[in-house]
Amino acid sequence: MAGQTNCYAAISRFYVFVYRTEAGRVIRVMLVDDHEIVRAGFRRLLDSSPDISVVCEASTGEQAIDSYQQHDPDLIIMDLSMPPGTGGLEAIQRIRSLNADAKILVLTVQECEPYPSRVMDAGAKGYLTKRCAPEELIAAVQSVAAGDEYVADDIKKQLASNNDTQLNSLTKRELQIFTLLASGQSASQISESMYISPKTVHAHRANILNKLGLDKTADIIHLGIRHGIVDP
């Protein structure tokens, strides 16, 4: 019986090893939360998954930025509420300025707008509340690490409603240009396809950015993806 148990244990370890190597390297995660006991709980949960490993932690926004540069994690789980200083949203923006491809999953108690919109516009790839099930957190980490977005269903509904309101402020022509910009077309390409001057395209682009409260074309692309107008 003991030999059989040892055999099963060996087989189990073998399959874990095969799973890790064939599926790719383990997802290296940084935890950012100002409460140590919260980080400890999340670390235990995440480390229970064979394809996830918590490699570093931070309790402030500044520590998060420093730790990101030092450890280069695959994914960051970020709280929004931080001690006075650099907050979660600012930390997201600064980390994204260091690496535009940084994968950040927000895990917060903030369940209502404007937080989800601001966070996703800042470049986060996922948004969960701390009421989520343990299984959903694991699924979100795996999804974001794979390059997808993961947003809790109730948050997704808020974002969709907010996006509809935003886009309804655009004229028919502005919505056409918004869609083309979101798909990655340049001003010159749009001017050719719509038979208007590049100057007119730039004017419409400026109006679109102003109406939607955006800063740059990259924000238009991100909003287009989030709204389902274009594919990621």
UniProtKB/TrEMBL annotation:
Residue positions where 4-aspartylphosphate is found in the record: 79
Keywords (A to Z) from UniProt: DNA-binding, Phosphoprotein, Transcription, Transcription regulation, Two-component regulatory system
Region forming the signal peptide: none
InterPro entries for the chain: CheY-like_superfamily (IPR011006), NreC/VraR/RcsB-like_REC (IPR058245), Sig_transdc_resp-reg_C-effctor (IPR016032), Sig_transdc_resp-reg_receiver (IPR001789), Tscrpt_reg_LuxR_C (IPR000792), WalR-like (IPR039420)
SMART domains recorded: HTH_LUXR, REC
GO biological process: phosphorelay signal transduction system; regulation of DNA-templated transcription
Coiled-coil stretches: none
Gene3D superfamilies given in the database record: 3.40.50.2300
Keyword Transcription on entry: yes
Domain Response regulatory: 28-145
Gene Ontology molecular function terms on file: DNA binding
Recorded superkingdom: Bacteria
HTH luxR-type domain boundaries: 163-228
Full protein name: Response regulator
Protein source organism: Motiliproteus coralliicola
